[in-house]
Amino acid sequence: MIRVRNLVKKFGDFTAVSDISFDVAQGEIFAFLGPNGAGKTTTIKMLTTLLHPTGGTIELDGMNPVLKQKEARQRFGIVFQDPSLDVEQTAYENMELHGVLYHVPRKLRIERTERLLKLFELWERKDSYVKTFSGGMKRRLEIARGLLHTPRILFLDEPTLGLDPQSRNQLWNHVKHLNETEKTTVFLTTHYMDEADRVAHRIAIMDHGKIVAQGTSAELKQQTDSDSLEGAFLALTGSSLRDEGANSTDQMRQVAKMWRR
Amino acid sequence: MGAIYILWLRELKRYVRSRVQIVVSLGQPCLYLLALGFGLGPVFKQAGHGSYLQFMAPGVVGMTVLFSSVFSGIAMLWDRQFGFLKETLVAPVSRMQIMVGRTLGGATVAVIQGGLILAICLITGFRPHSWLAIPAAFLFVILIAVVFAALGTAIGSVLQDMQGFQLVMNFLVLPIFFLSGALFPLSNLPLAMNIITKLDPLTYGVDGLRGALIQSWQFGAVLDVSVLAIIGALFLSAGAYLFSRIEV
User: Fold this and answer.
1) Between the CA atoms of B188, B192, B195 and B201, what dihedral angle is there, to the nearest 10 degrees?
2) What is the average per-residue pLDDT within A130-152?
3) What tens digit of pLDDT does each residue of B205-236 get?
4) pTM reported for the whole predicted model
């Protein structure tokens, strides 16, 4: 379903993703793990047409997203690391807007919106503004929205960041359920080893822009001779800290927070 | 078409729902109208130009449309920072459609704002030379709205943070307003001022409004409409180009 060969992305002199290759099969849940700044988000951005690769090839459902941008976009759903909902509109309106942007026929849109909002336990709140939602509800709505146009692949970039254990647990149950019933291929990144261990069929560990290991959770543990995925992860990526600089987005959020008080 | 419509509708919904903001954004033009209109009225009259309120009301309508439309474009900054822009940019529709939908939405909101201020002007005592002048005035309101909503989109596409916003406000939007002849007559200006005011697109919008409403033309309807249409097309292309280059 996803086929990546020798993918490279450079920003000036800095190589964010350096020559990675992997395959994700139809109906598989594939997890990307790695410390901050390893290149996970950059990879997702290239897979989802938001960034142009410097080199290498990508195939999504047999299609090159660089050449056939619109067709590729129609085929995947994405939940970004940062929220991307319109908080001034209701949950239902967010779904409607997405459905129109993705050319989902009206009747199907109404049907699927109801089904997905019910599935993600948001139907009772469909007419509330998203700004009144909790972090977990927003996440669920984003995933429901990402699935509205029946994508063949769902990208989840750290979907459980900042959620409480209950919400995380529930969210993964939903994702697993969808993977089983709709046969959606899921490509996810996360920092939580236990989540990857629980939901992912296969895992790739990324560090400094390279894939340092890939396989099932059991294979990774065996390979590094550790008894947990976390142990395997640390064995592969070392234990030094990775610091990222704050960018203008982070500063802006702080200003906005101040203003809202 | 669906994409343009739904994004246009979104801008409109946001406007209608933020009642506090409607009041706030109408407050400033009202202040100009009352403080300057009545405050400078006697001086203006003594200088032999007639009623200042009559003179400046079209200018204040132009100002309202200017502010409202530029801000709608710059509001993209928020959408960018809070992620919603990404949702539209990754959708299987062309950037052009997204840009057009947003810009038309912003322009529509500005037209409504302009209409509201025009109504307030009428309440405070402003009288057009004939009621048939109102539709003609709306032609100019729409032109001003499109020109500056497109400018706002162009600026919003390149701005990264709030400091940039202040910069645009102080060095672009306010000068456009003050140098447009909204508050003073354009005749007998010093040479430098004369040139600057003629370079300001809003000058032609305000002249059109004033001409339509109280039949006092500086340049004439044909020149005003053509200048605004040409600048509008220019800004729209610039906006489309810059918007297509946004990276998230």
Assistant:
1) -100
2) 92
3) 999 999 999 988 889 999 999 999 999 999 99
4) 0.86
Give the chain B residue whose CA is nearest to the CA of A52.
Answer: B247
Each residue's pLDDT tens digit, A76-117: 999 988 889 999 899 999 999 999 999 999 999 999 999 999
In order of A18, B154, B161, the CA distances from B92 in angstroms are 28, 22, 27
What distance in Å separates residue B171's CA from the closest CA in chain A?
A: 21
What lies within 8 Å, CB to CB, of A64 at 6+ separation is: A57, A58, A72
Query: ipTM value of the model?
Result: 0.86
Question: Which pLDDT tens digit goes with each residue over A32-77?
Answer: 998 888 888 899 989 998 888 999 999 998 889 888 888 999 999 9
CA nearest neighbour of A61 among A74, A52, A80, A50: A74
Q: Going by C-beta distance under 8 Å and a sequence separation of 6 or more, which residues neighbour residue B108?
A: B8, B11, B12, B145
Give the mutation candidate from A45, A68, A86, A260 for the B interface (greatest B CB count, under 10 A): A86
Q: Which residue's structure tokens are 């459902």?
A: A61
* CB–CB contact A50 B91 (8 Å): no
Residue A60: C-alpha distances to residues A71, A102, A149, B78 (Å): 10, 17, 16, 32
pLDDT digits (tens, 9 = 90+) for B128-164: 988 889 999 999 999 999 999 999 999 999 887 778 8
* B114-149 core/surface letters (b: 16 or more CB in 10 A; e: else): bbbbbebbeeeebebeeeebeebbbbbbbbbbbbbb
Structure tokens at B192: 């430098």
**Which residues on chain B are in Cβ contact (under 8 Å) with A251?**
161
Between positions 238 and 257 of A, the ones with CB within 8 A of B are 248-249, 251-253, 255-256
Give me the residues paired with residue B159 across strands: none
**Owner of token pair 């996970």:** A40
CA distances to A88, A102, A120, A126 from A133, in Å? 11, 24, 13, 11
* Cα separation values, B99 from A118, A195, B68, B154, Å: 33, 39, 17, 10
pLDDT digits (tens, 9 = 90+) for A151-183: 999 999 988 887 888 888 888 998 898 899 888
Q: How many CA atoms lie within 13 A of A248 on its CB side?
A: 11
Q: Is the pLDDT of residue B104 over 80?
A: yes
Judging contacts by C-beta atoms under 8 Å, the chain B residues touching residue A81 are none
Residue B4: in which H helix or E strand, if any?
A: helix B2-17
- pLDDT at position B225, please? 95
Contacts of B247 in chain A (CB under 8 A): 50-51
DSSP for residue B169 = I
Contacts of A82 in chain B (CB under 8 A): 82-83, 86
